Amino acid sequence: MADNTKKLTRRDRLSVWWRSTFLQGSWNYERMQNGGWAYSMIPAIKKLYKTKEDRAAALERHLEFFNTHPYVASPILGVTLALEEERATGAPVDDAAIQGVKVGMMGPLAGIGDPVFWFTVRPIIGALGASMAIAGNIMGPIIFFVAWNVIRMLFTWYTQELGYRAGSRITDDLSGGVLQDITKGASILGMFILGALVNRWVSIKFTPVVSTAPLDKNAYIHWDSLAHGAKGIQQALIQQGQGLSLTSTKVTTLQDNLDSLIPGLAALLLTFFCMWLLKKKISPIIIIFGLFFVGIIFHLLNLM
């Protein structure tokens, strides 16, 4: 007969949720996240099983191989909590069923984590925080840190609760197209955002001069006619704001011509080239040092 007194309280589930923050704390090449998973399950195991033997058996079955995106492990935790609760209350749930649900869910859900979090949420929040930081606003890194962790923690808690309430029934949805649609949509949005960030964060300036042309006398600031001191500086700033050039000649560089054709073309081509190198299994460290070396050489040759 089922023992209905063995139920996980909200406090128990909160303890599991908090411990899941350290899911990758003991990541290893043999069973990957199994240590962090077992650590997360300890509060539930202590609540559901009273004897040392039952607790040891529960820990042993949760030290099997497990690996998925650390944030989308939460719904799997929720389902596993529900299964362990059913087992502890007398339901016919064996080790193979629990491990089978974990393995069956971790694959499909892993494909959602990267496009949603690494390629969508983090670039958006990071771009916002970096823009504020570049402008000298101390709130930039603070907003990034707070917003990222609030989103992460709310997502993991509510998806764990979703899994716990749905129990083993949630696995029925994995065979449908819902996860595939979410993954595809998040991937498209993430790639769009990353593409938009290329022109903002990748900067290339080609300095060779293409042409030098004298300007009309009314098109530039006549510095010798300005007043002395602060008043002269004020006049120069006003004239510059009116569109007058600082010099009597217009210098056109190679970068000016490229920007007039397709702004950000060089940055985009460099990004594609780095992607091609990565696809060819070139180490990112080699690419980074290569970019440093080429940049220094081009600067010494007055090309950049």
Distance between the termini: 78 Å
Order of helices and strands: HHHHHHHEHEHHH
Low-confidence stretches: none
| Overall tally of structural domains | 2
Largest sheet: 2 strands, antiparallel
Q: Any idea what the radius of gyration is?
A: 29 Å
Spatial strand arrangement across the major sheet: 1-2
Query: What percent of residues adopt helix (DSSP H or I)?
Result: 55-70%
Helix vs. strand class: mainly alpha
* Number of distinct helices: 11
Strand tally: 2
What amount of the residues lies in strands?
under 5%
Query: What is the mean pLDDT?
Result: 80
Write a structural description.
With 304 residues, the chain is mainly alpha-helical. It has two domains: 10-200, no CATH class; 209-300, no CATH class. Helices cover 64% and strands 4% of the residues. It contains eleven helices and two strands. The protein has helices at 10-19, 34-48, 52-61, 73-88, 95-134, 139-166, 178-201, 230-241, 254-261, 265-279, 284-300, and strands at residues 209-214, 249-253. The protein has a two-stranded antiparallel ribbon with strand order 1-2. Helix 2 (34-48) runs antiparallel to helix 3, helix 2 packs parallel to helix 4 and helix 5 packs antiparallel against helix 6 (139-166). The longest helix is centred in the middle third of the chain and has 40 residues, at 95-134. The mean pLDDT is 80.
